[in-house]
Amino acid sequence: MSPERADGKTRTERASDTVPIVALVLALAPALAVSPMVASAVVLSLTVTISLVGCRLFMDASERWVPDHLSTTVYLVAAAVLVTLIDVLVRAYLPSIAEALGIAHPMMIVSCLILSRRRTAPRRQPTTADTLRTGLHFAAWLIGVSFVRELVGSGTVTLFPVGGFGGVLVVPVLSEHPLRMVARAPGGFLVMGYLVALRNARASRPRSTDAPSSMDESAETVREERR
Amino acid sequence: MSDSTSRSESGTRAPFLHEPPQVHERISSGEILATSLFCLLPAAAWGTRIFGLRAALVLVTAVLSSLVVEAIIVRLFRARFHPVEAEAAPGWHAAFVGLVIGMMMPPAVPLGIVIGATVFAIGVAKWTFGGISGIWLHPALTAWVFLAYSWPDAMTRWTAPATLPPDGVTSATALGLLRVAAERGEVVIGGLAGYLGRVGVPRTALDAAVTGWFNEVVSGRFATALPAGYVDLFLGNHPGAIGETSVALLLLGSVVLFGRRIITWEIPTAFFLSFASLTWVFGGQPYGAGLFSGDVLFHLLTGSVVFAMFFIATDPSCAPRTASGQIVFGLGAGALTVLFRRYSGGAEGVTGALLVMNILTPAINQLFRPRRYGWSLRASR
Q1: Which of B103, B94, B59 is CA-nearest to residue B351?
Q2: Is residue A2 in some structural domain?
Q3: What is the 8-class DSSP label of residue A206?
């Protein structure tokens, strides 16, 4: 994934290259499970971002006491603790969303995204800023997919009830004739496929002046691998 | 966006050579598509005759809107036609897909759904994958399924045909009525068409005349009798999708397709064999009869089996290439149709069955490759 430079440091990747949904089409299951509702996508992506950054900070702080061969185990335990903590909080304060998320939320412990950001070798330490960026990109994609799916699939946008606002925006024309298939799993694949296609099209567009960037290279590698 | 641009881009090639593969075809792809389209027209015209001008409006909307969608996509994305399609007049494929979509629709369907279906078929199922050469799911089927699951009410609102005497009882399809009977656990004896007659589905005078003649002349010798109602089903005097009711006219069109060698026998025959045999074995069970008592004729004449068998399953872009692969494709499609008719959410199972087989087609192509001449299978392993 991350090509190493001559000096041994990992080159800074564009965060969107490492968002599993987009780059690897990983972490699809939670994305498909939750995305028909914007609010649940927001909660899920916040969970992921917080646990990612939290685990990173914890691992950085505890680096001195954790031997290398145990780092993955410790990382997983940290992720489990954080995700479970957030899950309990969501169940207490946002019961409706916890119900909508179901098992997808506690399952984030074993999310590919979280696992992919663990430290694999001493030199492959992802920085906190990188991790935060990955989390935020994941959030942006998840919320984007769920927004499109909920808007087209049921004609509403579910947010959080605040004060007098009930939490659900109803779009006039779409809610009367929603394209229900989009809100189901096949529609999720469809929307995600088009978003990935859009991103790949943008990434592979030749740039006139500057040298080929990392995006182009990565797109090229992906294409090579597909062959 | 014609073939000439793609050829001038390649530059070095001699101008009089076609791009490889340089295969001599006795019939061009445009001719194939145009002939298929004209073979569908009798059945479509019959749909217009029994369901009125509203059905014609649906058909015209479907064809025009697919042509417009394709033109827009080609302009907007500067999409390039595959040489095969560009060489024939581009647009025949879109028109064919549009007509198939129109013929699969119920007559009273809102026109917005028809337009949505063509947008989905041409935009998503065809051009997302790169045009005619990239299609892996039949565009019309994909669009139909997408819309049927999005607007199930509008896609199952049927119209009684004008040729039947008005009865005010029902405009449900024959398959729909039978499904209700199966869910209620009713026992049906003496042919499924007989059941339809008992619940009050009207019949034409022609049906009685032809059935009487047939029983007198033909089946009397074999000590059996054709129950009333099947002739109406065969000729198309029953509610259903616009282009799928008249089995007779669909068969007429398929004869032309066979005659011009546009479709080959493998897929329809294998489809028919597995569908008929499995229906015969298991078809009686939902209605209280035992094994080996299914009403094959009834299941063949209702729904879209015949339409799908000759005009959709044989689509060359998403069916296997080799003869043996096509036989497997047909067998699987027939078996899945029987399965889905009995257990899936809707009354008709052909669409789902064919989509599954379309998905399996690349695997079938892998498994049933032609053997290389002079190579024994054991030696190559």
Answers
A1: B103
A2: no
A3: P
How far lies A55's CA from each of A18, A121, A182, A206, B211, in Å? 18, 16, 35, 38, 79
Could A181 and B149 be called an inter-chain contact, meaning their C-beta atoms sit closer than 8 Å? yes
CB contact under 8 A, B149 and A179: no
The interface residues of chain B toward chain A in range 225-284, judged by CB-CB distance below 8 A, are none
Helix segments in B156-292, DSSP class H: 174-184, 192-198, 205-217, 230-235, 247-259, 266-282
Indicate the domain borders of chain B: 3-155, 174-367
Q: State whether residue B134 sits within 8 Å of chain A by CB.
A: no
| Residue of B146, B153, B351 for testing the chain A interface, max A β-carbons within 10 Å | B146
* 8 A C-beta contact, residue A43 and residue A93: no
> Alpha-carbon distance B138 to B100, whole Å?
11
**End-to-end CA, chain B:** 46
- Residue B129 contacts A, CB cutoff 8 Å: no
Any idea what DSSP says for residue A97?
A: H
**Cβ neighbours, 10 Å, residue B138:** 27
In a domain, A3, yes or no: no
Local structure of A191: helix, strand or coil:
helix
Q: Which residues of A touch B128 (CB under 8 A)?
A: 194, 197
Question: Is residue A5 domain-resident?
Answer: no
Residue B91's region, left for phi above 0, alpha for psi from -120 to 50, else beta, is: left
Segments forming the whole domain that contains residue A39 = 15-226
Q: Please give the Cα distance from B268 to B259 (Å, whole number).
A: 14
Minimal Cα–Cα distance from A209 to chain B, Å? 24
Q: What is the complex's ipTM, to 2 decimals?
A: 0.72
Residues of A with CB under 8 A from a CB of B: 177-182, 184, 186, 190, 194, 197
Determine phi and psi for A168, rounding to 5 degrees: -125, 120
Contacts of A179 in chain B (CB under 8 A): 116, 150
Least confident window among A72-86, A131-145, B89-103, B159-173:
B159-173
What's the pLDDT score for residue A104? 77
Task: Return the minimum-mean-pLDDT range out of A76-85, A145-154, B52-61, B261-270.
Answer: A145-154
For residue A9, the model assigns a pLDDT of 42
Nearest residue of A to residue B123, measured between CA atoms:
A194
Contact between residue B247 and residue B299 where contact means Cβ atoms under 8 Å apart: no
> Taking chain B (381 residues) in consecutive chunks of 10 residues, what is each chunk's mean pLDDT?
42 53 70 90 93 93 95 84 69 92 92 92 90 88 88 83 69 79 74 76 82 80 76 87 92 93 92 94 81 85 90 90 93 94 81 94 90 67 49
The total number of structural domains in chain A stands at 1
Residue A115 lies in a domain: yes
